[in-house]
Input
Amino acid sequence: MIKIGILGVGTVGASVASILETNVDIIEARAGKKIVVKSGVVKNLSKDRGVDIKLSDNPLDIIDDPEIDIVVELMGGVEEPYKLVKQALENGKAVVTANKALLAYHRYELQQIAGDIPLMYEASTAGGIPIIGALRNGLSANHIESIQGIMNGTTNYMLTKMINDGAKYDEILKEAQDLGYAEADPTFDVGGFDASHKLLILASIAYGIDAKPEDILIEGIENITQTDVTFAKEFGYEIKLLGIAKKVEAGVELRVHATMIPQNSMIAKVDGVMNAVSVVGDMVGETMYYGAGAGGDATASAVIADIIDIVRGNQAPMLGYKRGLEDGLQLLPIEDIVTNYYLRMEVDDKSGVLAKITTTLGEFDISIESMLQKAHRNESSVKLLFTTHKCREAKIQEAISKLKELSCVHGDIAMMRIEK
Ligand code: HSE
Output
């Protein structure tokens, strides 16, 4: 019999306990041993968790319990779980974690500490979708060309409602929170940080890149307006918050941002709270993974898959490499990212204004691909919407700063990246 201890018995922890009972037959047959929850640790002992587990409020009751074989970390946070996971590994216990923030900051130290002790984290990225296993095992013969994914259910739900039903940003965020999709602090979702943690985990397996959230481009969906949505529809795009990892000649682009993508691409059709990840390997071509990225049972499904893997004795290296890559890939600096851009600005409705703007873009070698002008009734300003041909991030940022200095341009200039 294998005994597990759960640090943090919230929605996912309760689902782990209940699935281990509900699906006991198949789990035991697949693992070859019975798996039981011995105990759990919670901060607040007086709150009802809806499960019949022995609870304590002291993590050491699990970490130092010689009977516990596997520690399941579902607490959230970064430094506290880091300390506890480290201690559990040092005590020789296998660990399963769903904690993307912990891994975004400490995955390489934890890999070092774990050595041959299994440390698994399928549930950390895209919830129930087995993307870690796919990338680490199923695609291990490939150089990974790119990863493109909807890795945050809250923002996908919000964008779907904003685009399909014209819903207002604040109302729809509240709805996502009420439905239990959003993080405790929703800026984590809408600001792209949650997705960035997941992207960094995948980038380590795909490319061996050790980057932290502050090293990469992260933008959220906060500035998207109905004007952008209408423009996107008119020009054949969907808007999605994407995590993108792409191998280019000079290195690897890692970025999270709202993105216009062609309406007919597979990922554009992924609506609501669902997640999807497309991975292109040099030998396999494009592969696509779709499913629930959050929710108790879906996330617990991934946690238990890891537990079964450990019980079976599978020992894939934590981040997928038995030894370092000889010619390791480097993270491309943000300013060297190359893509197409969409710009939205409010300008005077006067002769010569368009010429000034196109001249400024021309000064930075930015070539316009398409343009739309939307007049407001009874107002002296108009909205100008552009898409550009491919250019460097540094150039578009410089051009935006210069455009903002023009007296005919009013307020901020909104920018969104386009992936074709
Ligand atoms: N807040 C996350 C989401 C939960 O909306 O996808 C899973 O990480």
In short: Residues 127, 152-154, 181-183, 189, 194, 293-294 surround L-homoserine (CB under 6 Å). The chain has a mean pLDDT of 95.
